[in-house]
Design a protein that fits this description.
alpha/beta, Arc Repressor Mutant, subunit A, Rossmann fold, 2 domains, eight-stranded mixed β-sheet, 9 helices, 16 strands, 23% strand
């Protein structure tokens, strides 16, 4: 496929979905992520889109909590601050002695670091970085699910991962959502991730969705289910009050570091 054809497809995808992930476009076009990033750079130079961490948004869309005048390093730092903020709230939901599942992702990696202040926590995960972090904490235990290593992240997926997961039950499951659509449908960036989360839902007493501010109003391509698939949401204060209120009106709990909306659950 010629570069012009790829960029036309990228333009169309971005117009429809309002945000794209490098990983998703790489799979869609069957090209490397390096090629996708090169195409995004050219489209950014043309003024069509604004690159952000892991993907891009249309130039006319205001990026929540991210100043388009920032450098890429600045934007990455801002996202890390959001992740740390969400992780700190999530950590408050975990008690000493709990058994929790932290599925792969940057926010859950931050949450794993927060657990150093807890003790006797057992963490079930498919994320290699999370397992390594918990392994350094003398008071906590990591259980790493088996499976095949993903080509674009330090995580395990596949039939063996799903099979192993069925052997466990946890107090709380923490999942990172890549998109919450205008219809309050939960979406993730890959079929493997969707399959793993669906299997994990049946192994948990309570499920908590972790959401970046930018992920609201966005379709990450693979549908997981309605917002009521999870019991609670944790997000950044930068997230739209409209979406937080709509989740609250659906009877769900939404937590941020500034305020809390509690529905009747």
């Amino acid at each position: 496929m010629f570069a012009t054809e790829r960029m036309n497809i990228i333009r169309g995808y971005l117009k429809e979905h309002k945000r794209l992930e490098v990983h998703t476009i790489s799979e869609l076009l069957n090209v490397s992520e390096v090629t996708v990033r090169r195409d995004l750079e050219r489209l950014e130079n043309d003024g069509f889109l604004q690159r952000i961490h892991g993907g891009a948004v249309p130039m006319e869309i205001e990026t929540v909590g991210i100043d388009i005048g920032q450098t890429q390093d600045d934007r990455s730092a801002e996202l890390r601050r959001q992740h740390d903020e969400i992780a700190r709230i999530a950590c408050l939901m975990i008690r000493d002695g709990d058994v929790v599942a932290l599925l792969s992702g940057a926010i859950n990696q931050a949450l794993a670091r927060c657990l150093s202040r807890r003790s006797r926590i057992t963490v079930l995960t498919n994320d290699i970085m999370i397992a390594m972090e918990i392994g350094t904490q003398s008071g906590n235990t990591a259980v790493l699910l088996g499976g095949s290593i993903a080509r674009d992240e330090p995580a395990l997926y596949g039939s063996l991962t799903l099979s192993n997961l069925r052997n466990y039950f946890v107090n709380r499951l923490f999942i990172e959502l890549d998109g919450v659509t205008d219809q309050l449908q939960l979406t993730v960036r890959s079929q493997e991730k969707a399959d793993l989360i669906r299997e994990a839902l049946s192994c948990a007493e309570e499920t908590v969705g972790l959401v970046e501010a930018l992920s609201f109003g966005r379709n990450a391509f693979y549908r997981l289910g309605p917002a009521t698939t999870v019991h609670k949401f944790i997000t950044s204060p930068l997230a739209s009050d409209e979406y937080k209120s709509r989740l609250f009106e659906s009877g769900l709990q939404v937590f941020t570091s500034v305020n809390t909306f509690e529905g009747d659950t």
